[in-house]
Amino acid sequence: MSKKFQIVIQPEAQQAIEEAYFWFGEYSPRKARSWLEGLYKAILSLEQMPSRCSLAFENDFFEEEIRQLIYGKGRNAYRILFTIIDGTVQIIFVRHAAQKPLLAQDEE
Fold first, then answer.
1. For the sheet containing 6-9, what is the strand order?
2. Any residues with CB less than 8 A from the CB of 74 and at least 6 apart, and which?
3. Which of 17, 42, 52, 72 stands 20 to 30 A from 35 (CA)?
4. Long-range own/partner contacts, residues 15-18 (CB < 8 A, 24 or more apart)
5. Could you give the CA distance from residue 91 to residue 81 in angstroms, rounded to a whole number?
């Protein structure tokens, strides 16, 4: 049986999720709910083998290893950025794929 990782969503990531949800909700409450449910399903998939995901562009700018899981397609793609520390997947940011990459000075 494979190891199951604990998922922790950091406050900055949770805030980004809520902002995207409310943005979708202004146009279509049904689409917003569907997007949110799918996003959390994608995040929960990281309980199993999170290292399957590729290193993020941001990996070169931080001390920790930063990986990404892409959720959605095309213009609706979001990057779920996370680290894996001692059996825990820390969701650190959720960013629209069109947003500029996160740099170390952005975190301060």
1. 6-9, 88-96, 78-85, 67-71
2. none
3. 52
4. 16/93, 16/94, 16/95, 17/94
5. 6
Q: Two tokens at 63?
A: 């001390």
Question: Radius of gyration of the chain from Cα atoms?
Answer: 14
Task: Give tens-digit pLDDT for 30-68.
Answer: 999 999 999 999 999 999 999 999 999 989 888 899 999
What's the rounded Cα separation, in Å, for the pair 23 and 32? 8
**What is the SS3 assignment for 2-25?**
CCECEEEECHHHHHHHHHHHHHHH
Q: How far is CA 43 from the centre of its chain?
A: 7
Mark residue 13 as left, alpha or beta (left: phi above 0; alpha: psi -120 to 50; beta: remaining): alpha
Is residue 5 within 8 Å of residue 50, measured between CB atoms?
yes
Distance CA 30, CA 103 (A): 34
